[in-house]
Amino acid sequence: MTLDTKRILVTGGAGFVGSHLVDRLVGLGHRITVLDDLSTGFRKNVCRDAVLVEGDVRDRELVRRLIDETDACFHLAAIASVQRCLAFLEESHAINQTAFVGLLESVGSRKGGVIPVVYASSAAVYGDTDVFPIYENLPLCPISIYGADKAGCELHARAAGRTKGVPSFGLRPFNIYGPRQHPSSSYSGVITVFVDRLRRGEKLTIYADGLQTRDFIHVSDIVEYFIAALGKASVDAPVCNAATGKETSVLEIAHKLSEILGHEAKIVFAPARTGDIYRSVADTSHAQTLLGVRASVAVAEGLRFVLER
Predict the structure, then answer these.
(1) Model-level pTM greater than 0.85?
(2) What is the tens place of the pLDDT at every residue in 124-140?
(3) Annotation says 146 is catalytic
């Protein structure tokens, strides 16, 4: 399956990452349908050349109809907030895993035959590992409800490949940042929060010593991962990391933003937060071999992009 397909469904296409993916796909000349309930996404994010269907990914009949009318599917609809998943476990599980199982069922029983599904898993499936860089064959040990649901999605994708012939590809994104990531969202990364506070003239709060690291990847690079994965979807349900392979500390982010802005940010240190992972960086060699993709936006460049918006 290649991007010669014309009709593509993007669930969660009004959200942060999904809307950027939709923009790219429309730019490539494809007819895009977005399914989004607008609970965390925004109508204004959706490209005018895409068709927005406001609906719930848990609506089996709606999903089945949309799947029957499309040639490929990118599945990004989810409750990504760790806090919301904890507070509303049953609802988040229904959206993050059960709805995905329903989507796979719709693809497996599609009237015109199966279509490829590229879906967003998460680096949260690894949990708090002490192996670095983090590679795909590590045991999955999620420590959050969100991570557990995403690990379950990977297992269901594999089972759907074996039992129903559904070709899929799962991506495990690390820390995504970029335009349209709303700073008030509980899922927003430290970069988006820092930029918002700097624009307001507020202090930056850094938890612990600020030396904790993350693998920050710009949303434009994540989009290229998704597009490349469509051509590699298979019944073996492959998965790979989607990251830069480079780690940057939270303190470095604060200093880089200060350098770009030309003035030193005011930093306040606070006690470490319970459950925070101290270090995170991905092994990207599998993605480079399997997808031929490598992140191209350096953190310093990506920070400038965010500040310019």
Answers:
(1) yes
(2) 999 999 999 999 999 99
(3) yes
